[in-house]
User: What shape does this take?
Amino acid sequence: MAATINPHRMHQLASEPRASEPRHDERAARPALHPIDGGRSPAARQRRRTYRRRRVVAVVAVVTIAVLVWQGVSGIVGLLAEPAPSLPPLRAGAAKPAAAPISGATYVVQPGDTLWAIARRVAPGRDPRAVVDELSRRLDGAPLRAGQRLELTSLS
Assistant: This one.
């Protein structure tokens, strides 16, 4: 329990002449104390409520910002981790792209072809690594383009 000192009463006590002999009633010499309900003044309680509200608002703001940052970082990482766009998947009943024509000595590159797939297609009974190396050497390391013609003569 808290109490306050009434300064007006103390002033009155200080101005009263003191007797040379000790008083029997010590309570009369003490300042008047007035208990405060709940131990806090209304202003102190209001400051405490305001402080609590500010803490709650700050915590909510920090959590909101953390969630937004987390979602932003996750979105960026998701975009970076996505594979490069390729041909759209075939729907049921849709026509499949025609196989690349192999006419003896020439192969026409189709969209989505790779050197590995071409090597397996033109030399099915052989190790594709040697064929891929030979095709890459003939292309001088340049990437494949759809419609490009590859000469398959003397493919070792």
Summary: The chain has four helices and five strands. The mean pLDDT is 74.
